[in-house]
Design goal:
Blueprint lengths: L1 H10 L3 H21 L13 H10 L6 E4 L3 E4 L5 H11 L11
Antiparallel strand pairs: 1-2
Amino acid sequence: MGKQVHTQELNEYPEDLKAEFLRLSEWIRKTRQTYGQRVVVRLVDPQSLGGMWKVLRQRIRRFPTFLVDGTERVVGWEGDPDEAMRRALSRAGEAIPEEARA
């Protein structure tokens, strides 16, 4: 029943928001599969109180915005959040999985 309700709620959104949600969900799944426990993904709703604070503090103007390792901000998908993660892992001395090297 839970999945059916979630799907029903998702279908009430405009097509562009559904497409963005699905793209973000797929990226998170792929990231977790590739990096496992080494990468933590936190989703923040910009309309929540904590999200509004983060938007103001980080001066976020476009979504999605990825904050990587507290040092790098990637705005939108054209900014390549995957490359930013690879750089952060390299700085931390982590080995980059072969499937993540592209």
